[in-house]
Amino acid sequence: MTQPIKTVQLPEGVAPARINDLVNAAHQNAISKGWWDEDRSFGEIIALIHSEASEALEDFRVGKQPDEVWYENGDKPCGIPSELADIVIRVLDAAGRYGIDLESIIAEKMAYNATRPVRHGGKVL
Hints:
single chain, mainly alpha, two-stranded antiparallel ribbon, 2 strands, 53% helix, MazG-like nucleotide pyrophosphohydrolase
């Protein structure tokens, strides 16, 4: 069942960030924290994205709910939502590294997906 999205109220006059603004912010933060002092292989980047997905799965396997957030040491957000955010942040960083216009390709891919038949591909989990 689909749950309503919990939204954060932005201050008046503040627009939500565009995807490519998030790409630049995530990539610049990674650079400033030393994550690009040595170049990484594309395989390593994908493995790091995958590791965040595995952490979300582990939280679920130990009984955490998909919308459950808790804080370690009072300030570090933990839980499946946090791991999903980490996946997105790593994808944004990768897009920044490779100069990918993620905003345009997401719009293009969503438009294409809207044309696909119901449950296309027929694959099962």
